[in-house]
Amino acid sequence: MATRHVVYVLECADGTFYTGYTTDLQRRIDEHNDGNGAKYTRGRTPVRLLYHERYNSRSAAMSREYKIKQLSRREKERLVGFE
Q: Which of 55, 72, 77, 79 is a plausible cystine mate for 61, CB 3.0–4.6 Å?
């Protein structure tokens, strides 16, 4: 099976980060920018993709999403290459 499970980090218009999971990255980014994404991003558009990782299993991707969400802002900045 192809690596269809994606964990991604977006930067919102207000400078905050959003981490999510999807099986179709472009569709999900479009949903966020159209105001149909996560509640968190609805008032913070436009968003832009900073980083993503692909996984072969949903469970691996969801586990990684959780770990990224636990990172501090500074750690997320390092992850996405801001440093």
A: 55
